[in-house]
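Technical annex B. To support the medicinal chemistry partners, we prepared a structural model of the target in complex with iron/sulfur cluster, based solely on the information shown next.
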Amino acid sequence: MYRTLHEQYPYAHCELDFDNPLQLLVATVLSAQTTDVTVNRVTPALFSRWPGAADLASADRTEMEEVLRPTGFYRAKTNSVLKLGAALVENHDGQVPPRLADLVKLPGVGRKTANVVLGNAFGIPGITVDTHFGRLSRRMGWTDEEDPVKVEHAVGRLIPRTEWTMLSHVVIFHGRRTCHARRPACGACPVARWCPSYGVGETDPEEAAALLRFELAPGAGAKGG
Ligand code: SF4
């Protein structure tokens, strides 16, 4: 199933824009409860105004709130970014540490964010269990686990470690484009023949094809969508 999904989405990648580990870390924190497209709209202004961890730590709160406002929950997110910048300066000389154990100690950073950063900014394989990954792993019969950490370990045992980052991308792409939370496009799904959940969504090929969201318009990649 993974190989087929990889063939379907050979270009699967992290959909957040970033130039360095700090940018990806901050962008991932900002992506909570919003789309990657929305985050990508605000991060150029954020990183040109405050390029380093020390800049983020000492930023004017009101000014940053204005920049982050389009991402929603902007007061909480500003708070997270200020604290994150401060913790990086205090504990890691302003650098993003390339270790899971260090990353998850940073304020506002959980395993999911840490694995995104490890896999995409440092090339260290990681499985990113977001809402799509958890839902699809269960639908495709890879695991029954609900807890994201248990899903990560269970699926990690099935797939070679070197594939973990790409696996995360293709499963998330499949969740965003085909196997939606509501009305998955089963009739247009490349792994339907092996999927124990085939039929939970639309099975008519034409109706299913109309549900595909291959070319995402800005804002169309809604989380859980
Ligand atoms: S067959 Fe349906 S439920 Fe299974 S992976 Fe495809 S779209 Fe999702």
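Notes passed to the chemistry partners:
Confidence is low (pLDDT under 50) at residues 217-225.
Residues 13 and 104 are 23 Å apart (CA to CA).
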